[in-house]
Amino acid sequence: MTQTLSQLEHPDAFIRRHIGPDLDQQKQMLQQIGASDLPTLIASIVPENIQLSASPLQLPSASEHQALAELKAIAAKNLRYKSWIGMGYSAVLTPPVILRNLLENPGWYTAYTPYQPEVSQGRLEALLNFQQVTLDLTGMDVASASLLDEATAAAEAMAMAKRVSKRKNANKFFVAEDIHPQTLDVIKTRAETFGFELVIDRAERALDHQDLFGICLQYCGSQGQLHDYRQLIAALSQQGVVVAVAAEFMALVLLESPGKLGADIVFGSSQRFGVPMGYGGPHAAFFATKETFKRAMPGRIIGVSRDVQGNIALRMAMQTREQHIRREKANSNICTSQVLLANIAGMYAVWHGPKGLARIAQRIHRYTKILAKIVQDNGLTLRYSQWFDTLTVEVSDKAEVLKRAKQQHINLRSDLHHAVGITLDETTQRQDIIVLLEVLLGRNIPIDLDQEDDHVSQQAIIPPALHRETAILTHPVFNQYHSETEMLRYLHKLERKDLALNQAMIPLGSCTMKLNAVAEMLPITWPEFADLHPFCPTNQAAGYLQMIEQLSEWLITLTGYDALCMQPNSGAQGEYAGLLAIRRYHESRHQAQRHLCLIPASAHGTNPASAQMAGMEVVVVACDKQGNIDLEDLRSKASQAAEHISCIMVTYPSTHGVYEQTIREVCEIVHQYGGQVYLDGANMNAQVGITTPGHIGADVSHLNLHKTFCIPHGGGGPGMGPIGVKAHLASFVPGHSIVQSTLLTEQGAVTAAPFGSASILPISWMYIRMMGGEGLKQASTLAILNANYIASRLSSDYDILYTGPEGRVAHECILDIRPIKERTGISEMDIAKRLIDYGFHAPTMSFPVAGTLMVEPTESESLIELDRFVNAMLAIRREIEQVAEGEWPLHDNPLVNAPHIQQELVSDWHHAYSRETAVFPAGAENKYWPTVKRVDDVYGDRNLSCSCVPIADYQ
Hints:
The chain is an alpha/beta fold. About 40% of the residues lie in helices and about 10% in strands.
């Protein structure tokens, strides 16, 4: 049939590329399931009373090139001034070898959190490098594998200080007044919910307070002043006060480590190690502490362990999923960290090495000294005499200075009284110094920079007592990859150890590992988005603000809410921010006694952890045998809570993978007692275009943009967790103390930057723009189809734990392995590890029910890949039967010995099954090789080591 011109021009090409099954495959799958068509399938699964009649978003789809052109025009509205604002953010030079082969490489950015260490050894090694950098620069004993940003790390340090303090009756936390203002903003928010009293004053006055449990100091103050806090820290430590110090990677290359100064906790931002400013993020925060406090640390630690053959193997230690186990007793609610960005920072250190980093830091400091000398020689005064890279210059004509800066397309720090701030960085050139002097002095002056350099070369601005004496980065990994050839091969070697979406389907339940299209990823490295300082004047960020406003409007429509806050930079942060909005709302109505949060027993572990962080008390609501919220128990708990109920946190579709028929009733019961409904957005991929949280009856939700809206997981982060709210909560979502915008409220912040990790928002903008309203609905529909196809094909061999009234699942299904284990001895762990031999990442293991595997295929997987996974699961089921029938002994079979590594092909073979069965169960084509056998978790926790392994130990 001849197609019309309009049909040939129809820009739905991207939808066909995003959605895996084509029309013929969809028909085959529907036939397998026993459904006549997609609308009939959805009608049999989603409760009729919450279904929408049409897609809520009336947005036509665009082709990849159309969407990129639209976004490029928006990005062009951002003005790329040179920002010398500082305040924890500086321009960087990302090494191209890292930009192309890590940041822009799907082998790195599409990988999942390394919960399955055998398929994650590459990124685990990269994270171990990051931890080693942190240990060397901070001088501490134990480091984590990154937090969300410097400000939230400060809040975590405060909470940790309270946990470990021996002054149990003390309730005051001291903050030095020269901390970055955005950090103070987040500390204030967290202190309020914990009920801590903040004391904000000059650091020297901390000793005047006798009832402190902790203190936060900034090594290089926000205005640049460098502090020698040795004596103060010693005096505070003697009194039992826990000391946290904010620092910065580049400064620590030259400065004595905070550990040597006596700090208990050290944190800060690694942004200056090659990560673009990106209007605020994402950036990896570092966090380190003393050995004594290691079990109280928030976040994730990468530990050195061994596999069952005794070989070195890396894994996430202790905190691996501790919020899912300890729930409201967890150290924090952190679920997403900043793995991709931590890896960039770590590789920046690998690429430059200790000598290269020293050159960069010395050059920055030398330029700052030259600028300082000439400024002072020409009659201006510096507020401080000791600094690393930041000058506070006192000026009588501040307005004129800022006017001249604007004319030169320069941003200076402008919020200081009768002064401007200037922070130099690795991008600073000689011409920049000349222009800065012209801006400050109001005239051109003849300068010989080489002569000035001679004058300052022997000048000691950093006092001798604060000069770093200990060597850094002595491990070979930081001293051998300095040619691009070697660095390229090192990055590729690590990439090959991992299993990411560029290799195979990642069938994780509750984590939606869908296509992260290249067209979506391209804009994040455009300079128009990458180079903006988060505190630049808003008129310079007009493109960002337009993009954020459009994306917000689309998400508001897709959620059925009235307003959206784009600040939270992870799903767990979104939970916290949403609960804060509920708390503030109740307080505004003089109902501060509402402090109870109802949480179903099946909920994500971050839910109770977030409730505790928001100052709420958790009340667990039971689930029935079908996995649904027990309405009678809910009524009973709500009635008992009565005027003390703050909210309920529910996930929809439920964590058990079904659309609960009574969700509207759940909302009504809670509203009846004056509570609010928080609907966790983890499973929004089964809602978009079909229903909305607002239509269901919820008041607030966070959205995992790194799940439903295509921001890649990056090996464990970055994430984004913006919150949608109903109108009555709109004025209670987070705001910001530095940036004012109609998109922000006047409330306290939860993250350092006003719009969280703004530079990854173009990914979700592109996804929605290319899919359009109908395309998004198709995506949700096909996610449900794919899940039911898998459930249908596997149901004869595996028990499907929970289904809806017509025996169907939502967008994920839970395989119950408990009967198999009871009969055969083979566990869900054995199946998960055996899947590696078949070339697959395991489904989610033992969550939300112990002894199960939860599978979520996503709409991006074609029938070919779904069948490959199903066939692997069916083959594993046959292998289990061979064990059950005695053909293979329980202690020696392909499942309990999985995964199998390449070396086993040439080693002595004494197993009851063949080498071919071990390593090629699905054939040799496109074989994925894990590099370690099953990791010994117990050994790793008993022998915690979070630093780089000596090369000799690998031999």
